[in-house]
Amino acid sequence: MSKQVISTPVIRRLPRYYRFLGDLELEKVERISSRELAARMGLSASQIRQDFNCFGGFGQQGYGYHVGELHEIIGRILGVHEQTGVILIGAGNLGKAIASHLDFDSRGCRLIGVFDSNPLLAGTSTHDLPIMPMETLDSFCAMHHPQVAVLCIPKDAAQQLADHLISLGIKGFWNFSHFDLKIASPDVIVENVHLGDSLMTLAYCMHSLGEDEENS
Ligand code: NAI
What we know:
It is built from eight helices and nine strands. It is of the alpha/beta class. The protein folds into two domains: 8-78, Winged helix-like DNA-binding domain superfamily/Winged helix DNA-binding domain (Arc Repressor Mutant, subunit A, Orthogonal Bundle); 84-196, 3-Layer(aba) Sandwich (Rossmann fold). 1,4-dihydronicotinamide adenine dinucleotide binds next to α5, β4, α7 and α8.
């Protein structure tokens, strides 16, 4: 498969394709046309064909897509078979929920360490991982070389901690801290997550739907 630059919107759709194809596999569906897949996913068939063409096609004329193969190929593109080491900083309400309920392993990541600055949390655990004091962060990173940090800390602490984590070798941040990190290095990736934005999008759509109904 030739390596080419893939646009961000396509990349953002890949996990969804992967999820739908996984469900189809569980339903024992062996092959599917772009039209059927589009109907299930609420996309257009041409969108799907265009997206898959970015990676070299996969489909066969008159046959459609082989669900298992496509699932495997997209999984490989997403790196789900990798075991990227992840640490989580901030074992409060959000951090514990993420550590306990998110299946890192099936997404190519392995949660290997949880840290918090609150001394009262040291010695307790979440998701079978001990919550470690921040004083042990440097030695842990030197020994285990995590690549990704999940930031579940207050926004005031985010930038300083991120800078320090980069110096310890962290290359990617899954940033829940509501702070827009300033990262000088182009080799470091930040994925910001704002659940509140998603809720506001829903609220806006419901609000504008109500307005449309009033005006019709
Ligand atoms: P929390 O107060 O329950 O937990 C925060 C934890 O971070 C505490 O255990 C605290 O000891 C620890 N902490 C604080 N400074 C630290 C530092 N410098 N190093 C290591 N640990 C540190 O708060 P909660 O509810 O878990 O929220 C955490 C953050 O996530 C907040 O900033 C909140 O605004 C944000 N948040 C973001 C969401 C999103 O969608 N992005 C959704 C919900 C919360």
